[in-house]
Amino acid sequence: MITFESVTKRYPDGTVAVDRLTLEAPTGRITVFVGPSGCGKTTSLRMINRMIDATEGRILLDGVPVQGIDPPTLRRGIGYVIQQAGLFPHRKIVDNIATVPYLLGWDRKKARATAMELLERVGLDPALAGRYPFQLSGGQQQRVGVARALAADPPVLLMDEPFSAVDPIVRTNLQDELLRLQSELNKTIVFVTHDIDEAIKLGDQVAVLQVGGRLAQLADPKTLLSEPADDFVREFLGQDRGIRRLRFISTAGLRLRTDLTVAEGFDGSSPERWLLVVDGDGRPLGWRSSDRPEELEPFGTFVHGTDSMRAALDAALLSPSGCAVAVDERGRAVGVATRQALDEALAEAADG
Amino acid sequence: MTWLSSFVSWLGEFFGSGENWSGPGSIPVRLLEHLEFSGLALLLAVLIAVPLGLAIGHTGRGELLVVVSANLARALPTLGLLVMFVLLLGTASIWPVIIPLVLLSVPPILVNTFEGIKGVDPELRDAAYGMGLRGPQVLGRVLVPVALPLILLGCRLSAIQVVATTTVAAYTGLGGLGRYVIDGFATKDYASVVGGSVLIVLFALVVQVLFALAQRVTVSPGVSQRLKVR
Ligand SMILES: Nc1ncnc2c1ncn2[C@@H]1O[C@H](COP(=O)(O)OP(=O)(O)OP(=O)(O)O)[C@@H](O)[C@H]1O
Ligand SMILES: [Mg+2]
């Protein structure tokens, strides 16, 4: 657990970057610091590993004040990932990952073996081990940065906008990978971002900071979206706060109709305007409209019970039928969420 | 006789003469003298300028020294400095020649080492500290390997300069390849002038090649980005 006790950082020029910050980052959880540029996110993060020293207050690591620990020793026990990866250009990837194990005096062979394991763990081809950083793409370098931070298996991981310099698709992948890794590793992670969507996706709890370094709200993402503490937070969350909230509403309770599904080659008549055509395995093929039964229209799917209401709504909007196809984990249709059903679920979401 | 054919015949005369291959004034002796003066001066300059440049670049303290030395190097006349030291100290030892040579070759090494270290991407320096490296480790394990091309460039510039200036040192009555040129002019022995000049040029070329080799061996392919993506 990382504890901020009324921590203030005043730079020599008088700028107050962090103002009496008090919060806890619980063990095994992801705590996200989010806020507009210059609100003191990086400063707060770097005070944990003493890259910056606090002016007032204390930061405790499992109850031990970091101010009392020799900085290099402290940092070797804390993983640190920065925006541009910051890999050592003169070292091969495997040696970059093994940086901290080497510093800790591990046997070279063991350090390299650990590095190779981590390379795979972060989703990279082991063949990249012998390359130099300049031979990797930005996204690959960022993965190496994460592997390097994890190499000595530190309990705490600090990440400062680690995914903001890569394109949106790669960023989504990296975020998913981080969540997957975290489900295996259970690190205490402090993650800095200025992107509220990233904060909501990754955070077990989100700390919204305000320029001047004041904590505006500390809450889990769902609470943050439904009960913003003040106008600043409300404005920062943006206009589509309601839509984002749908991410936290399960589709398990969504009412499905199973009488709208027909097999491929169906040629009968039906009072329904839209029918879902499925193949022999039950996988959806398309929507059949009673106006033009010879042509199938596009469809959208969501995994029933696993995906959120946001995904269900998205699926509905992808089809001219206005209905979303509920599928199981293997992609077979289990039913159809009609507009009516979605409407009911949305009404419920708006209430609670 | 055209200019070229007289050049060739002078060369033949110079390199063909048996006198030039044995005895105190022979080519091997002069080469060794040249190597001794310039090598010693360069070594001393490296020993002074590299640690100084590393320390100033890493700590940011004493930057004024780098600026002053760079400007002095541009302002000081090489020959004037040599003559002054010889007049002050006489020619009993080689030091009146070595000291000005060292003074001349310190600035390029100092400036380039300093700039190399200082110019390393701050993000990289930051990452090194963030991983838990201590100050000297950051310098030795990250900054120096990354700045090495510039440090070597400084050394190479100085080496070329020293080799050239050692030629001028012959004015003061010391040995080295410059003797052929200066004595040759004095006695209108143009074969000696031409042969000596060619030797000096070759010497400088060899120095360049040696530095290029050293660069290949010591600079990481990750820094020089020599490798193709495999
Ligand atoms: N070394 C410094 N000296 C003086 N002021 C500084 C220094 N570093 C940061 N600041 C100031 O402190 C405040 C907080 O900076 P910080 O880098 O923590 O912001 P941030 O939230 O990480 O911003 P961004 O999203 O742009 O990275 C800013 O006003 C910044 O200008
Ligand atoms: Mg920042």
From TrEMBL, chain A:
<dbReference type="InterPro" id="IPR017871">
    <property type="entry name" value="ABC_transporter-like_CS"/>
</dbReference>
<protein>
    <recommendedName>
        <fullName>ABC-type quaternary amine transporter</fullName>
        <ecNumber>7.6.2.9</ecNumber>
    </recommendedName>
</protein>
<dbReference type="GO" id="GO:0005524">
    <property type="term" value="F:ATP binding"/>
</dbReference>
<comment type="similarity">
    <text>Belongs to the ABC transporter superfamily.</text>
</comment>
<dbReference type="InterPro" id="IPR027417">
    <property type="entry name" value="P-loop_NTPase"/>
</dbReference>
<dbReference type="GO" id="GO:0016887">
    <property type="term" value="F:ATP hydrolysis activity"/>
</dbReference>
<keyword id="KW-0547">Nucleotide-binding</keyword>
<dbReference type="InterPro" id="IPR003439">
    <property type="entry name" value="ABC_transporter-like_ATP-bd"/>
</dbReference>
<keyword id="KW-0067">ATP-binding</keyword>
<dbReference type="GO" id="GO:0015418">
    <property type="term" value="F:ABC-type quaternary ammonium compound transporting activity"/>
</dbReference>
<dbReference type="InterPro" id="IPR003593">
    <property type="entry name" value="AAA+_ATPase"/>
</dbReference>
<feature type="domain" description="ABC transporter">
    <location>
        <begin position="2"/>
        <end position="237"/>
    </location>
</feature>
<keyword id="KW-0813">Transport</keyword>
<dbReference type="Pfam" id="PF00005">
    <property type="entry name" value="ABC_tran"/>
</dbReference>
